[in-house]
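Incident log, support desk, overnight shift.

02:14 A customer reports that sequence design results differ from what the structure should imply. Their input is reproduced verbatim below. On-call engineer (initials T.W.) acknowledged and began investigating.
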């Protein structure tokens, strides 16, 4: 069996694809896996690091919304569809699983031409253009939110790294707090704006830290590798404020924390709900509004707070986040609500869809 994954460009597309690849290999170590990608995407590093083959195709960026530029896409796609076809033929692909983005669309169209079964996975509450098109040709569509508008979709969640999907936060907490130099017993706020950081979140939390410390709250702050680390002057006896450029063990960061202040990317929302970590979500103010839609179901379930980027201030942190961290019962209830909403088995459910799609083709 050989499965081709199409989800390059950003970590939000690549990580679920790699989680599925890992799950397929656990089920059958002999399965062949090839990930489609371009020379400029993160996949050029992430896919080989995880031990999978990368098949390169030309990059054809897609407009996020219907525009006059959309008319030119078919012509520009011809070469990249042909390159994707050649990879499918060379690998004798049994199935193509796409995760959206500009790598996915040529994968879908090549698979349609060759009669290879297509599975679409949509991580965001608002589907992107590639998956909207791909879902027309796919018999199997998996989504991360129960109220998806994609036709015939199955709610499975987002495939997660095993270190996240199997995390027992309470069991790992002592090790995690020691790893970051945090107090083992104090309420802990984790702050991160994603892999690159978010200047807005950084500025607000730095201004709010003194008030949090005075209230007995310690802070672990991933500022982003391109942002300057703030000066730290922890007074003796005060809770620690620990800024770091980047966290490469998010499982430990989640285990160390009691609550998180973050953006609302689909992967972040899925990971936090899976591990049962309450969060204050600050959706990115640009784009098509998908981050608010990503977070809203979890917030509605009682597992988080939601604040507009423009309304995020040090005063809001003090009035809305601090009271949660200071209330163990409320933290417990929010954590339980997040856990009940979360899905830890999306990778296994998607593996089942792969086998189902291939079995239907072989009938």
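02:41 Re-run completed on a clean worker. Output:
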């Amino acid at each position: 069996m050989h499965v081709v994954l199409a989800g390059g460009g950003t970590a939000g597309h690549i990580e679920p694809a790699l989680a599925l690849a890992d799950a397929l290999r656990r089920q059958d170590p002999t399965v062949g896996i090839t990930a489609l990608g371009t020379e400029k995407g993160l996949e050029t590093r992430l896919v080989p690091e995880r031990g999978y083959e990368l098949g390169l195709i030309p990059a054809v960026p897609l407009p996020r919304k219907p525009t006059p530029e959309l008319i030119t896409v078919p012509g520009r796609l011809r070469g990249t569809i042909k390159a994707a076809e050649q990879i499918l033929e060379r690998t004798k692909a049994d199935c193509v699983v796409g995760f959206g983005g500009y790598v996915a669309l040529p994968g879908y169209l090549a698979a349609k031409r060759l009669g290879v079964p297509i599975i679409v996975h949509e991580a965001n509450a608002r589907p992107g253009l590639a998956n909207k098109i791909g879902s027309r040709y796919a018999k199997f569509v998996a989504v991360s939110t129960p109220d998806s508008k994609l036709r015939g979709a199955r709610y499975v969640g987002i495939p997660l790294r095993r270190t996240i999907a199997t995390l027992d936060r309470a069991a790992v907490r002592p090790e995690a707090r020691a790893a970051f130099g945090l107090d083992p017993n104090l309420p802990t706020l984790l702050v991160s704006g994603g892999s690159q950081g978010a200047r807005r979140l950084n500025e607000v939390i730095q201004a709010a830290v003194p008030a949090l410390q005075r209230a007995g709250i310690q802070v672990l702050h991933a500022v982003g590798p391109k942002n300057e680390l703030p000066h730290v002057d922890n007074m003796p006896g005060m809770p620690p404020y620990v800024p770091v450029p980047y966290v490469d063990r998010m499982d430990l960061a989640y285990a160390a924390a009691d609550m998180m202040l973050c953006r609302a990317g689909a992967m972040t929302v899925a990971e936090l709900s899976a591990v049962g970590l309450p969060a204050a979500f600050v959706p990115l103010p640009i784009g098509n509004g998908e981050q608010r839609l990503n977070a809203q179901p979890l917030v509605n379930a009682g597992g988080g707070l939601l604040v507009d980027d423009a309304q995020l201030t040090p005063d809001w942190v003090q009035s809305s986040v601090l009271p949660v961290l200071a209330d163990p019962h409320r933290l417990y209830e929010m954590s339980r609500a997040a856990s009940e909403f979360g899905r830890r088995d999306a990778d296994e459910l998607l593996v089942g869809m792969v086998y189902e799609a291939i079995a239907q083709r072989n009938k």
